[in-house]
Amino acid sequence: MSPFEIAEPATIADALALLSGDDPDIRPLAGGSALMLMMKSGVFRPTRLVSLRRLDEFTGIAATPEGGIRIGAMTSLAAIEHSSLVKQRAPVIVEAMRRLANVRVRNQACIGGALAHGDPHLDMPPLLAALGAEVTIVGPEGERKVAVADLYVGYYQTVLAGDELIREVSIPSLAGRHTAYQKCTTRSADDWPALGVAVNLRAGKSGISEARIVVGAVAEIPTQLRNVEMILQGRTLDQALLAQAGEAAAAELSPTSDARGSAAYKRQLVKVYVGRAIAAAMDVVAS
Ligand SMILES: Cc1cc2nc3c(=O)[nH]c(=O)nc-3n(C[C@H](O)[C@H](O)[C@H](O)COP(=O)(O)OP(=O)(O)OC[C@H]3O[C@@H](n4cnc5c(N)ncnc54)[C@H](O)[C@@H]3O)c2cc1C
Q1: Most buried by CB count within 10 Å: which residue of 110, 132, 209, 279?
Q2: DSSP class of residue 80?
Q3: Ligand 1 pocket, residues with Cβ under 6 angstroms
Q4: Residue from 6, 20, 26, 35 whose mutation best tests the ligand 1 pocket (most atoms within 8 A of CB)
Q5: How does pLDDT run along the chain (287 residues), one tens digit per residue?
Q6: What structural domains and CATH numbers belong to the chain?
Q7: CA gap 80, 92 in Å, rounded
Q8: How far apart are CA 150 and CA 129, in angstroms?
Q9: Dist CA 78 CA 59 (whole Å)
């Protein structure tokens, strides 16, 4: 590893001043779980890492008056997993955490790093996109808000400039929502996903009135299944609809092959898991 500097600013202004919009060898450091792997393998050789651990504005989990949750970017995944507020207001996140890597990684990795990294094989981006979450980004020009669904533009690429930071993520109220996250791994149970499917539905006596379904790990960025969402609109769930949703999802996506499965295999996974995730959200057993 080549020598590099670690800066530990105590204010956002100092952190932003230490970052660079032009130099890719200067990066923010959160839990370091991804950065260290990239540095050990020689893919990334930093000249400066800007640690965010002393920034008070980047910490904490708080309830919003509208019934949502605000989570500081430097909050560890383990803190989110064990938060009684998250369990009460967004239990789907707690459930997803249990199969995200292992205790060691969840203790280390932070929600800001999990969202900013841009690796298509992560669990939080599709889930938080489906839940309608948004990030608050701070930079030299001030603050802006971006939906998690709009954060990704390509393989390991986000809309974040080199001198911008995710300060927090806000999850809206999920009252009255039916949510689920289904993950398929092809190695160990806690591996990076071969497929992740996140579902967020509003449904009543007259059927499904709103649907948002986002899949991860099949393409370069989390992908919203708009055709499937349209098919579900106004319908009441039964086994035929679950099968139709799975078929439509497989037709809508163009999966890419990777170390966890070929494109054809992933298409088959999508067909099965989209139906399963919708069924899980509605508490129905898929046949
Ligand atoms: C063995 C192993 C298994 C794993 N399995 C899974 C899995 O199954 N599912 C899953 O979802 N994840 C998994 N992870 C975690 C995932 O791969 C990343 O390592 C993790 O999400 C990165 O979080 P971090 O806080 O450590 O980020 P870091 O490594 O510190 O940073 C990652 C990137 O984000 C940038 N960054 C960090 N914070 C900010 C911020 N606030 N604003 C702007 N940019 C920022 C950094 O500059 C860097 O580019 C696994 C990790 C390991 C090591």
Answers
A1: 110
A2: H
A3: 27-35, 37, 52, 73, 100-101, 105, 108-110, 112-114, 116-117, 119, 122-124, 160, 165-166, 191-192
A4: 35
A5: 688 999 999 999 999 999 998 999 999 999 999 999 999 999 999 999 999 999 999 999 999 999 999 999 999 999 999 999 999 999 999 999 999 999 999 999 999 999 999 999 999 999 999 999 999 999 999 999 999 999 999 999 999 999 999 999 999 999 999 999 999 999 998 899 999 999 999 999 899 999 999 999 999 999 999 999 999 999 999 999 999 999 999 999 999 999 999 999 999 999 999 999 999 999 876 65
A6: 5-51 (3.30.43.10), 58-171 (3.30.465.10), 177-281 (3.30.390.50)
A7: 11
A8: 8
A9: 13
Count CB neighbours of 91 within 10 A. 12
Looking up tokens 């990795």 gives: 109
The residue assigned the tokens 């080549």 is 2
Q: Give the residue, out of 27, 164, 192, with the most ligand 1 atoms within 8 A of its beta carbon, to mutate for a pocket test.
A: 192
Beta bridge partners of 258: 261
Place of tokens 């400039």: 161
Q: How far, in Å, from the CA of 35 to the mean position of ligand 1?
A: 7
Could you tell me which of 29, 28, 26 has the C-alpha nearest to residue 46?
A: 26
Distance 4 CA to ligand 1 centre (A): 20
DSSP states along 48-59: EEEE-TT-GGG-
**Best probe residue, ligand 1, of 74, 105, 138 (max atoms within 8 Å of C-beta):** 105
